[in-house]
Amino acid sequence: MKFSLLNILLFSLLSSQSLVGQNQKDTTAINNSVEDALKLSQEGNNEESIKECLTLLSIDLKLSLKDSFRVYRSLAHNLYQFGDFDNALNYAKTSLSLQFQLNNTKEKSYLFLMHFFNAAEQYDSSIYYMNYTVRSILEKKDENNINLLIKTYNNIGFTYYLNNQLDSAEVYYKKVINMPGVKENHSSIYGLATGNLGQIYFSKKEYKNAIKCMQTDAKLTKGKIWESYNNAVFGIAESYYELKEYKRAKKELQLLFSQKRQINKTLLKAYALMAKVLEYTNNGDGSAIYLKKYIKLNDSLIQNEKPKKEVKNQLSRTRINLVEQNLKLKEKEVELINNQLLLSENTAKTHQLKTRAYIITLILSLIFIILLFAYFKNRQKKNRAIRELEKELLEVEIKNKQKDLNNVVTNLSYKRSFIDDVQQKLKDLKHQPVENLSENLTSLIREFNTYKSADKNVEVLQSDIEKVNLSFFEALGKKYPLLTENEKELCGLLLLNLSSKDIANIRNISPNAVKKARQRIRKKLPIRPDEKITTFLSAI
Question: What is the pLDDT of residue 309?
Fold first, then answer.
């Protein structure tokens, strides 16, 4: 039993260690897969990164909270690059909820989400979360969050601008521009807000105000925010074009073309605008050249968009296939759970039946034990009653025999007196005449016949004592086998409360011999020094 228990403990320990090792291997493999997916995204391989991330989510791996956040955030970023804004927004929302579990930086997280809402043209939601960010910053009154507040105001203005709510957009851009120390401490954001305000002036056909704002934007964002700088230069050129100052427009466009870093969408508009400017300045050949550049760049952009659309469709199909696979797995899991439930129900029923059987068996066993106990108790009670009755009968019989024994003892005394008398008479016969010898002998013979009957009574009494004490002798022999037959017979006479003198007369020995025999018996029996031998023997 001990060996089996030890084997079980060792097996459990080894199993737990192997499971821990397996879990560690699985965790390492998952971490490696997550790192591979993120690395693909960093290297610009968005398509493969998306496939890896979708695979990680579809095969129901036990990702950690941090890894789940990173996978969802990567999916949102990559799908945004492919123009799949709706799915990108969904993954961005999931990543945001996971980020809240990791930390409590809701303000910056909501600003991240704003880009996805704007791309999906859900402007009201974007403005709602940015206003939440503004309230949170103002409540905290933390000077370290001034930069975040300025960015949020600028983004709210930009969202209103995208939603064609120009007046609301102008309000927020002016909030940024008019905040103390913004131009000195946050020049890039000041430039962005001023440039965006210039776009509003351009939409309102206030071209001169637009040029002033965009010039400030170009000055402050050059070399820092190239997209804003290019847009500002193009906006200045476009404003001059609307003011029919074509030379200035041409000069600004040439400045834009000379930049090392250019934005293709802005460059495309610049080529079209330059073609118009040159056409108005009667430079048809130059206009044709820029028109060709426009067509070439536009075709290139269209060609670049086609693979993206194809990849987008392919990724959508991949997502659908993965979802279907996941659904099939879930169906199998549900089926397995149902089977497990049925098995559990059957097991529970079997266990219930076994429990009932055990209870019934236990009850029957208890009843049987109780009846058996009652039977043995009743039997013991009857045996005790029988033994007590036998003891009473034995005591009565012993008392009767004791009386007989007393008579025998008396007879024995007479016998000794008789023997003494006979001896004396025999001695006297020697001195009496011969004629009286016959008469005296006849008298002696009669006396001998009388005392012969007394000897027969002694033999009968000895036999009766042995019969009465048979059970006593058996018990005494079993408990104390070292006792001899003579010693057991002496114990029987002691049990009758006879004195040493009486026992000496019965056994035809001296009282001193009886005393020595009593001492030998006390040594062989476990009798206390202060306990009478008759008391000890009566308890056997």
Answer: 53
Treating both helix axes as pointing N-terminal to C-terminal, what angle do 511-524 and 500-507 enclose, rounded to 10 degrees? 110
Rounded to whole angstroms, the Cα distance separating 235 from 218 reads 10
Number of Cβ atoms within 10 Å of the Cβ of 398: 20
Written as six digits, the tokens of 238 are 């476009």
Spatial separation of the C-alpha atoms in residues 478 and 126, rounded to whole Å: 108
Rg of the Cα trace of the chain? 64
Rounded to two decimals, the pTM is 0.48
Q: With CA atoms as reference, report the closest residue to 493 among 537, 539, 540.
A: 537
Task: Return d(Cα 271, Cα 292) in angstroms, integer.
Answer: 9
Residue carrying structure tokens 């859900």: 122
Tokens coding 318: 């991949």
- 242 half-sphere exposure, CB direction, 13 A CA radius: 16
Q: Measured between alpha carbons, how far is 9 from 27 in angstroms, rounded to an integer?
A: 27
How far, rounded to the nearest angstrom, does the alpha carbon of residue 287 sit from its chain's CA centroid? 78
> CATH number of the domain at 15-259, please?
1.25.40.10
Q: How far is CA 148 from CA 66, 133, 134, 409, in A?
A: 25, 9, 9, 134
Cα–Cα distance for residue pair 259/274, rounded to 1 Å: 16
CA 440, 444, 446 angle in degrees (round to 5)? 120
pLDDT > 90: percent of the chain: 21
395 near 472, Cβ under 8 Å?
Answer: no
Q: Within 10 A of 470 (CB to CB), how many other CB atoms are there?
A: 11
Checking if the pLDDT of 206 tops 90, the result is yes
Q: Which residues contact 451 (CB under 8 A, 6 or more apart)?
A: 411, 414, 415, 418
What pLDDT shows up at residue 188?
Answer: 87
Each domain of the chain, given as residue ranges in start order, spans 15-259, 404-538
**Average pLDDT, stretch 479-499?**
86
Those residues with Cβ within 8 angstroms of residue 252's Cβ, 6 or more apart along the chain or in another chain: 233, 234, 236, 237, 240
Instruction: Identify the band that residue 194 occupies on the pLDDT scale cut at 50, 70 and 90.
Output: very high
Distance separating alpha carbons of residues 157 and 173, to the nearest angstrom: 6
d(CA 68, CA 13): 32
The answer to whether 518 touches 529, Cβ cutoff 8 Å, is no
